[in-house]
Design a protein that fits this description.
Rossmann fold, phosphoserine phosphatase, serine biosynthesis, HAD-like_SerB, two-stranded parallel ribbon, alpha/beta, L-phosphoserine phosphatase activity, amino-acid biosynthesis, three-stranded parallel beta sheet
Length: about 170
Amino acid sequence: MRVEALAVERRREVPPQRHMLGVVMAMHAFPIMPGMRELVVKLLTSGKQVFLVSGGFRQMIAPVANEIGVPVNKIYANNIMFDEEGKYAGFDDTEPTSRSGGKAEAVKRIKASNGFQTVVMVGDGMTDLEARVEGGADAFICFTGVVRRDAVAEGADLAVGEMAQIMDLLL
């Protein structure tokens, strides 16, 4: 089943409501890796730009991005839409991350719209690795500090388990 079909099916099972987002976030808080904020701050102060590309939902990712120092306008993620009563009204299918190959498309957009010569993608999943395509990410670093997925690590340019290693590579 394609990513798009899975996303639609998931929302049919339990249609989200705007007021539920805070409850869900409190119950399933995204853990922030030790050293993540420091890494982002050092990258930004060194003149590099940091983007967050995720197949998750913008409404849930934005607080995490804010906490680690990534501006909201540098997030590429799915967007849940609600009607005026706060009921689920679908998701924004214009977001590249709403479909298969979306992270690669997001990286291509980032690269083209900012005139970047080089983009390095850091991630731990197969869709992160898939962003390393012509016109997309020029290098992919597999982060194994949370979970190691052998197929992803083997396809990566490098696999590292510590934030400090990423800092050393990118600064």
